[in-house]
Amino acid sequence: MNEQSAAYFIFGLVLVVLFVGIIAFYYSKKRHKKVEEPKYKMLDDDE
User: What is the pTM of this model?
Assistant: First the structure.
């Protein structure tokens, strides 16, 4: 494996790890209420 191939592999690996980290952060149990609350607040009757 030459240097260019290794650089592409490392770059791709970093992107995958970053993507998985963002998904894990967004769907974590701690954020569940914060993420879901606006959806139900929108459906509440204002009157």
Answer: 0.62
